[in-house]
Amino acid sequence: MNRVIRAAGFLLLALAITVPARLDLELQFDAALAVIYGLAILSLVLLTGYVGQISLCQATFMGISAFGTGMLVNTFHLNYFVAAAAGVLMSFLVGIVVGIPALRLRGILLAVVTLGVALVFDKYFFLDSAYGWFTGGSFGWHVSGTHVGSIKVDSLHVMPAYYVLLGIFVLVALAMLRLHDSGSGRRFRAIRDSELAAATMGVDLTRYKLVAFGLSAAIAGLGGALYPLVVGSVSAQPFSFLYSLQFAAFAVLMGIRYVPAAAIGGFFMGFMPVILVRLSHSLHHDIKYDWFQVVLGALLVAQLILLPDGVWGDVRQKLDHLQVKAPRRKVETA
Amino acid sequence: MSLLSVKDLTVRFGGITALDQVSLELNRGEILGLIGPNGAGKTTLFNCISGVLQPDQGRIRYQGKSLRWLKPHQRAQRGIARTFQNLQLWGTMTVLDNVKVPIDALGKRSLVVDALGLPFATYAEKAANERARAILHVLGLLDHEDRLAGDLPVGIQRRVELARALAMRPQLLLLDEPAAGLDAAETEGLADLLTRIRERFKVSMLLVDHDMSLVMRACDYIYVLDFGKLLAAGRPEAIREDPKVIAAYLGEASAELPGAPEEEAVVVAKTAAQPTTPVFRLPDRPLLEVSGLAAGYGHLEVVRDVNLRISTGEVVACIGANGAGKTTTLRALSGVIRPRGGRVIFEGADITHDRPEAIVRLGLVHIPQGRGLFPKLSVEETLRLASYSGADGENLEPAFQLFPKLRDRRRQVVGTLSGGEQQMVAMARAILARPKLVLLDEMSQGLAPAIVQELFRLLDEFRNRGVAVLLVEQFVDSALAVADRAYVFEQGTVVHEASAKELRRDKGLIASSYLGSAPEPPAAAAHAGGNGHNGHTPLPAELMEDLMLKLPASMLRSLQEKSAREGRPAQALVLELLEERRS
């Protein structure tokens, strides 16, 4: 069974490497966005899926590293990738600070607090002129692009950035899979299942919760840091709390406890708008993106009833059952 | 000197004093019992020791050092492990993973090493696996290592919790009601298991439990709490006979003490229960008739081919080991889970596939295990809710007549009531629905014996009102004392049906029931009563300390008792004994 999933994973990865190069620029752009969204969902798999802490401000973490990177590139003329690394570090630190309330709160209260954080950044910090040094004022930062060796990367040449993003995504995903079954992963999951038991069995709640928030923010920040390179500029709109809510919705829909769910979720979030637009062109019928949101909402309701462990979680369980049954039949015939 | 020393511990929650100046001493190698009625503060004390709760006053010293500033995980790493009354296993993790968490917590393993899968992580993983398997092996859990902890039956989950606590390499094990939800045979096994664990893992234990047969059998020394105060302390035999303890713990009226010889107990319970005979019994037409019932969860069939008949106003008990299918049967009868086969006829109507709310309206009320109450509603609101199941929501009088205690507490929020009172609320709510048959699941779970006796007497009231009762009960003897008939469940089906009288005569069943026989007195160290040799040159303090550490716990406890009795330091007594030996 595991072998089947692994083979499917390799196949999809091969497709992800080869297919976008043959697409037009708009679709290449969406492919890069899909990976960025995938990283954001992956960050929720770690924080909510593994550790059980709810966060509705993952887009804010993305925004901090995106603005930070833009600022360092424009103001200090740093190399883009050095700036990006610094941007991720900023997200990590902000994540730890946001994690402090999680030491006391959980469940719906924590959700509200993180939503509050998202709103403060979204409606105030990212927009207020007082923080123009960080956000680039009302026009945001313009990023003209960079070079990887002799290859030019900017918003018109998206593929190199896409490959960097894809590489990062694969590495983070692999690390998280490894983490899941390791000692640290077990401690994370212990916190998710019972904080009381975790604390009395020697797990340092303060440390592990803060680390989880920091790491999760950094993973979201990885996508955010490369966002300016793909889009060519940074503004507040793509980091609004509505995106945070969408990340959470997609993560739950696809199976928040599972790493592959991030890949599936990112794919849908990245490509759904353009697919709908092209469909409406070819059908000569106006299909709005809003419809997609309505469908998403309906899917969520259906999923919570039919597939409570998310699309991936339940599919996987079905596959596991098949595997359990198969060898038994062999024994009977033998 | 002692491993754990608690001094003048006081904890207040708002106006309530949960613990009032409690002191206790636990010696190395000792199994210390802590008993007391519900709400006596036992779990609060546990929470203070494991660091989940900060006491308002008093101090706790462990291995001679104060625990005051240590967080729960630091205390755990220093060797204080615990289990929980309401199981706190990590349900979505496998049994093996559950046991590995505390093992990891003892080592230094970093997140980076884990995420990158460096060689060191693989090595540590292997070592953790081996140690975890060794512990699982000792507790007989190896067969379950790959199962998710949440999927296991309660009895096994309790053992997994024990394994997880042992994986912490504890010196002190805090056991919070390890026998709750276990049947009589499992409880008996638990006492032996605990003594075996003490030998094998060299741990001391602090044990809280309601099951007196377990406490009496396993403990070297017992402290009794009542309303947050220390009521008594002594060896099991002394506690058993202490009138103060009997009064507080078992209730003034009940002369019976679980753990006393069974004959007596039966007689007492009988006189309380037997005089009434059902008035409303209709001949020949059963109230409930179940034939060939099958039910289960997921792909698991738990009960099959269950046949039951209950007449109006009859009290019928279901007895049998944990996992025998008693609770599942009740759930299938009340429609909470869908029967997979067979027929359920209630008052002549086929209700096999009816929805639970329709079944309630017909007069078949289910009081589930754990009582199924809403902790944030007041008593009155809860009782009014019964109107949804066909009662007159305005007139709560019938309930208050039966449970006068609840009248005073009508405005109180259910979650703040004691366990016994909560059970009363659940029963009162059921009676308001004007039931013809009440299904009562584990009524006495987690309750002190005195309250249990009171509840059993109330079942008689049910019968007087023509209400039939089908009950599932751990306290087999008490249940049989009230019941007219009983069904014995084994492995998902009814294997035996008999009148309660007959079953009570069945020695084999009695032996494994709650009222176990008196335990053999633990080996007490014999002492010669010296006449007080004074004027010796005292041994150096360190040597004395060392000597105290190496004494067996039982001997040490005898010494302490003697020193308390005679008002002299234990060290002096030791010297005396050594002198006697020499001469």
Question: What would you say this structure looks like, in words?
Answer:
The complex is a heterodimer of chains A (334) and B (583). Chain A has 334 residues and is mostly helical. Chain A has a single domain (25-333), classed as ABC transporter involved in vitamin B12 uptake, BtuC. Chain A contains 14 helices and four strands. The longest helix of chain A has 27 residues, at 205-231. The radius of gyration of chain A is 21 Å and the shape is globular. The two termini of chain A are 22 Å apart. Residues 326-334 of chain A have low confidence and may be disordered. In chain B, helix 7 (184-201) packs parallel to helix 8 (212-218) and helix 11 (262-273) runs parallel beside helix 19. Chain B has 24 helices and 20 strands. Chain B is 40% helix and 21% strand. Chain B folds into four domains: 1-79 and 170-250, P-loop containing nucleotide triphosphate hydrolases (Rossmann fold, 3-Layer(aba) Sandwich), CATH 3.40.50; 89-168, no CATH class; 270-363 and 435-511, Rossmann fold; 541-582. In chain B, strands 6-7-8-3-9-10 form a six-stranded mixed beta sheet, with helices on both faces. A six-stranded mixed beta sheet of chain B has the order 16-17-18-13-19-20, with helices on both faces. The radius of gyration of chain B is 26 Å and the shape is globular. In chain B, a hairpin with a 2-residue loop joins strand 4 and strand 5. Chain B is of the alpha/beta class and 583 residues long. The A-B interface holds A 175-176, 178-179, 182-187, 189-190, 192-194, 196-206, 211, 215 and B 50-52, 71-73, 75-77, 81-82, 84, 88-93, 97, 100-102, 104-107, 109-111, 114-117, 121, 124-125, 128, 164-165, 168.
